[in-house]
Amino acid sequence: MKWTLTFYNHFLSLQKRYQQETPKQRLAEKAWFDRQRQQLQQLLDSVEVILN
After folding, report:
1. Taking the model in full, what pTM does it have?
2. What is the enclosing helix (H) or strand (E) of 37?
C-alpha cells in the first residue's frame, strides 16, 4: 500500500510538471528523447554487428 501511495504521489507531481511546461519545453524534451533513442539504436546495431 505504501508503494502505491508513493507511486501515485510521484505520478501527480510529474503530471503537475508537465502541465506547467511550455510547448517549447515539450518539443525540446521530445527532441532529446528522440536523439537518445537514435543513439541507443545505433549502439544496439553496432553490438549486433559485433556479435554476428
Report:
1. 0.58
2. helix 23-51
- Dihedral (CA of 28, 33, 39, 45) sign: negative
Q: Which residue do the cell numbers 508537465 mark?
A: 18
> Among candidates 14, 41, 18, which has minimal Cα distance to 29?
18
pLDDT reading at 3 higher than 90: no
Which residue segment(s) compose the domain that 32 sits in?
23-52
Alpha carbons 3 and 1: distance in angstroms, whole number: 5
What is the three-class DSSP state of 1?
Answer: coil
When divided into structural domains, the chain yields a total of: 1
Instruction: Show the beta-strand stretches assigned E in the chain.
Output: none
